[in-house]
Amino acid sequence: MLQKKRLYIQEVATRDGFQNEKQFVDTDAKIALIDALSECGYAKIEVTSFTSPKAIPALRDAEAVMHGIARKPGVVYTVLVPNVRGAERALSCGVDEVNLVMSVSESHNRTNLRMTREQSFAQLRDVINVVHVVKSTPVAINVSLSTAMGCPMEGDIEKEEVLRWIQSFADLGVHGVTLCDTTGMAFPTQVGDLCRSARDAFRELELTLHFHNTRGMALANTLAALDAGIDRFDASLGGLGGCPYAPGATGNVCTEELVHMLELDGYDTNIDLGRALAASARLPALIGHDVPSQLLKAGRRLDLHPMPPTDTAPEQRAFTKEGA
Ligand code: COA
Ligand code: ZN
Fold first, then answer.
1. Range of the domain at 175
2. Residue at 3 is within a domain
3. Predicted model pTM
4. What integer is the mean pLDDT of 262-290?
């Protein structure tokens, strides 16, 4: 039998999702959810972020969450870190990976991180130095490049510009780079072109694609990235997500919808979809509102419904009487 192609799914709901929620999710509820996610088969879980509690109050309990979860062997537990202070906090919790973030667009970087891209780069270089040299830890480093497929303030970002930033971080020895469509501006042919170029130029890097479904193109973009050789995707349970500093940036690609599609198409995502759906069903109670997931509402393609009894279905009777 043909070996199914293995894909790597990385859950971001408790970071990219919760950072944007008005209702604070209790620390114990976050821990219980992450523990449930650890049983779903993810390659990686982005647990939380070690940012300023004033900037992102929803994640002000990062240490408690990181210390409270039961870590399952084989799952990489990563956290978002904006600066050296964040890295030190993260390292004190024994994280497997730190995920550094900056935007490839100057305007978005200034809005989100309140500094120029060059200042961000210098700061992230310091973080990498602290993790790998000063503290000489084996902690992996990933860099997420926001607005890599369009900026809500500047518009298109040149592919060469994105590749230049990847190169700058590859030169610093990071192990992975995530290309983020922060505000759902990417479209399939653009994604295919960028992914092919990045894949060809940086064979040694773990490349992740991070789509938002702001304009309904996330699944189409995923197929384009797959076609270009990408095998690693961020996704958010229930379709939660957004960037507090990107207007209208709601909704990461929904994990259960992504997995449902990929498994139907014959890929091995390693995700237990039943468990992921059960975890997703817990979200509305935690955040106080409905989630975008279509799959949660409609069920899986072959979750069949019983046929209504013929003697209680008037439209069915009318149909039979006509003899059609
Ligand atoms: N952890 C905890 N506190 C931090 C911190 C960190 N990693 N980094 C900064 N702080 C605190 C400082 O101690 C300071 O606190 P004070 O006002 O009580 O003195 C305050 O935050 C401001 O610090 P400063 O160094 O002036 O940073 P800033 O105001 O320029 O903020 C960031 C820079 C990046 C730390 C902040 O904007 C941030 O965390 N943004 C969130 C970015 C993000 O996660 N966006 C969504 C993901 S894409
Ligand atoms: Zn995002």
1. 8-322
2. no
3. 0.93
4. 96
